[in-house]
Automatic annotation (TrEMBL):
Pfam families associated with the record: CheD (PF03975)
Coiled coil (UniProt feature): none
Source domain of life: Bacteria
Function of the protein: Probably deamidates glutamine residues to glutamate on methyl-accepting chemotaxis receptors (MCPs), playing an important role in chemotaxis.
Chain segments annotated as transmembrane: none
Record organism: Thermotalea metallivorans
Molecular function via GO: protein-glutamine glutaminase activity
Name of the protein: Probable chemoreceptor glutamine deamidase CheD
Length: 162
């Protein structure tokens, strides 16, 4: 099923209705956040790079941050006919791609991205029903609009559906 594949770049987002597949490549410390309405089969994916837009001067790209990217994605899936009360989320990524000798939390971008993602989804009252986060390896994900299945592909760790 290659006809309906929609690529989502880094610090980017997209939404689709069935039939369609949303995919993003190269989730290292970045987090891929999906929203899915099982009734309307509307889905969305945002590939965030950083937890908060508040600490960055150049924050015009809303999709780059958890605090602005997730609300943006929510707005777009609602425009396509999703119902907020039915939305569920799956998340992947947030790896620690490099090891640091110091214990400075500022370098734990992946962990901070996952934490910020969970906080924003919690505030929006959107349940996370599955996640594949952490570790020290990258991920590629594909979200299928017909089932809401999130396929997670990793080098050296195989593939799994969540």
């Amino acid at each position: 099923m290659t006809a309906g594949i929609i690529k989502v770049g880094m610090a980017d987002f997209n939404v689709t209705k069935h039939p369609g597949v949303l995919t993003t490549l190269g989730l290292g410390s970045c987090v891929g956040i999906t929203l899915y309405d099982p009734l309307t089969k509307v889905c969305g994916l945002v590939h965030i790079m950083l937890p908060s837009s508040k600490a960055i001067k150049n924050n015009s790209n809303l999709a780059k941050f958890a605090d602005t990217g997730i609300p943006l994605l929510l707005e777009e899936v609602l425009k396509l006919g999703a119902s907020k009360s039915r939305l569920v989320s799956k998340i992947a990524g947030g790896a620690q791609m490099f090891s640091f000798s110091n214990k400075n939390d500022i370098m734990k971008i992946g962990e901070r991205n996952v934490q910020a993602t969970k906080e924003v989804l919690g505030e929006l009252k959107i349940p996370i029903i599955a996640e594949d986060t952490g570790g020290n390896f990258g991920r590629t994900i594909e979200l299928y609009s017909d089932t809401g299945i999130l396929l997670v592909k990793t080098i050296g760790h195989g593939m799994k559906q969540i």
